[in-house]
Amino acid sequence: MIRTEEMLLNVGPQHPSTHGVFRLVVKIDGEIITEATPVIGYLHRGTEKLAEDLQYTQIIPYTDRMDYLSAMTNNYVICHAVETMMGIQVPERADFLRVIAMELGRVASHLVAWGTYILDLGATSPFIYAFRDREMIINMLNELSGARLTFNYMRVGGVKWDAPEGWVDSVKEFIPYMREQLKGYHELVTGNEIFLDRVKGVGVYTKEDAINYSLSGPNLRSTGVKWDLRKDEPYSIYDRFDFNVVTRDEGDCLARYHVRLEEIEESLKILEQACEQFPAEGEIMAKVPKIIKAPKGEAFVRIEAPRGEIGCYIASDGKKEPYRLKFRRPSFYNLQILPKLLIGENIANLVAILGAVDIVLGEVDG
Amino acid sequence: MVEELLHSSPGLANFGIFFLLAAVLLLIVLGFVTYGILAERKVMGYMQLRHGPNRVGGKWGLLQTVADVLKLLLKEDIIPKAADKPLFIIAPVMAFAPSFMVLATIPFTDKFQFADIGVGLLYYIAVSGMTVFGMVLGGWASNNKYALLGGMRAGAQMISYEIPLVMSVLGVILLTGSLNLNDIVAQQDDTAWFILLQPVAFVVFFIASIAELNRTPFDLPEAENELVAGYHVEYSGFRWAFFMLAEYVYLFAMSALITVIFLGGWLPPFDFLGFIPGAVWFSVKFSAVVFVYIWLRSTMPRFRVDRLMEFGWKVLFPVALANIFLTALIKTLFF
Predict the structure, then answer these.
(1) Chain B partners within 8 Å of A7 (Cβ)
(2) What is the value of pTM for the model shown?
(3) Mean pLDDT of chain B
C-alpha cells in the first residue's frame, strides 16, 4: 500500500537563504508547502528594555544594531523623536549631512537586497557586483562617521562629525558612476528569462492584504499604494527635493525587485540635489543641554527606512532615561504576511518569496 | 592500436599495457579534475572581481586543489547514526564509477581511444544515466530531509533531460548513419562540423548536458540556497569528494563528447592547419567547451524545479523531435 506523508522541515536557523538566524517550520507535501510557521527571536537583544536604563545618547549605538544594513535611518529616528519632544531645531548643514547619509544608506541597503536576492535565486556574480558598489558607499560613510556598518553618527540636535574636506564631491562623483552600474544590473539580471520565470507572478498579494498586514516600504508600494513618508509626511528637509514615489501594480516578487532598483535611482536624484544645495558652512550641532532630558510626556515619530516605516515611541517621565521606548521595526511587520504567502508554493519559491520581503533579522528580533 | 590489442591473445604483457594505459588515462582525468577545478575557481574569480586561489603552490594557486583533496582525506569520516549504512557507503561509488566508465569510448585522437565499440554514443548515454542512482540512493540513505528532496530532484531532473539529450543527437546519427564515435568524426571530416549542420541539435544537446552535469542553471539537486547542499548534505570527507569527483569527471567526459559529436573531435578547422597534431585541436576545443560551462555558471540564476520538467518536456523535447524530422526529410529528399 503506497501512502504519502506530510513532512516537517526546519528551514533555518542555519540555512543559507534565511538572511540570518531566522527559522521557518514548514510542513511539506512533496515539495509543496502546506503550512509555514516562522520562528523568530534568535537575535533578540532586548533593545527596548535596555534603553530604559540608558541616556538618550547612549541608546543611539543600540539602534545601529537593529537594521544593521541601514543604520543611518535608525540613528535618525531616535534623534528625531527626542528632538520632537524637546523642540530642538536642527541646523541646516546637519540636516543636509543627515539626508545625504540616510540616502546613501538607502542605496547601500537596496544594493544588498538586490545582490542577496539574486544570490538566493542561484546566480553568484551579481551579488559581488552589488557589494563592490556598496563598498564605495561604505567607504564614504566610513570617512564621515569612522565606522563601516554601525555608524553611531547622529546625535540629538545634529550630527557628531562634520564632513571631511572634499567629501561632498566624492558623493557627487559617485552618483553618475552608480547610474552607469544600474544599467549594467538591468542588463545582467532584469531581462534574464530564468530570473523572470522565477519571480514573475510569485508571491502575489493585493493592496488590501498589504494594508491589512501593515506592510510598508517597497513591500507596500509594489502593490500600487503610493505611500512614502518622505513625500506624505516630510521630515527633516525632504520637502526641498524633487523625487518620485516608485510604485508597481502587480504585487509580485518582480514588482518588489523593480521598486527597489528604481528607488535607488530616486535616492540618487535626492543625493544629487542635496549635494548641489549643500551649505558651504554652518553649525552641525544645535544648542542642546549637556544632559538631555526629554520633557514629561510621550511622542511617536515615523520615517521611511529602506525596508519600510520605522517608528519610535518614547514615553518620558522627565528623567534623562526614557520611561519606555518602543520601535516599530518594519522588517518585523513585513514578515507577518509570509505564512500566508507560502501556502501552496514549493521550496524554490519559498526562497524567492522570503528574499523579496527583504528582512534583516537584527530588526525583526529587536 | 588498442583495437589490435583487444583482439590479440591474452597474456601478461597485454595486461601490463592495458594497466599502463588505464593508469595514463586516470592520471589525465585526475589532472584535468585538479586543474579544471582550479580553472573554474580562477575564471569565476576574475568574472566576480576576485583573484581566486593564489597562495598554495606558488603564484596561481597551482596546488590549491591538491591541498583541498589532502584536507578532505584527513577529515573525520562521518556516517549519521540514522543513515542506512551500507547504502550510504555505496552511493558515492555508484555515482562515481560510471563517470570513469564512459571515458572508455571517447576518441581523444584518431589513435588514443580505449574501446572503439559500434554503439559508442548509446553506451555513453546509457552508462552516464546510472549516476543518478547514486545520487538518489545517497539522498535517501542519508535520512535527511534536504538530502531526500535533493535526491528526488535528481531523479526528476534525469527524467526530464535525458530524453531530449538522446533525441537531439539522433539528428547527428541520421546524418552519419552510425552510433560509432569514430564514424561521427570521420563524417565531419567529409562534410562539415555538426555544429554547423545541426545547430538546433547542438543547442538542445548543450542545454540538456548542463542539466546532466548538475551545473547552474540546472543545479537543482544540490541547490545550495534552497536545499543547503541537496543530496550530499550529510556527506563529508572523502565520500563527499567522490560525489564532487564524479561531477568533474562528467564535466570532462561531456566536454569531450561535445567536442567529438559537434566540434569535429581532433580535426583541424581548416585543412591547411593539419600539421598541428590532433591532440592539440582536441584540447583547444575541449577547453572552449569547459570555459562556456564555467561562464554560464557564473552568469545564470537557477531554474525552478517544476519549470525544469516543463522546459524539458514541452520545449526541448518537441524541438529535438522537429529537428529529427527535418533532418530526415532533407536527407531523403536531397541526398
Answers:
(1) 145
(2) 0.85
(3) 83
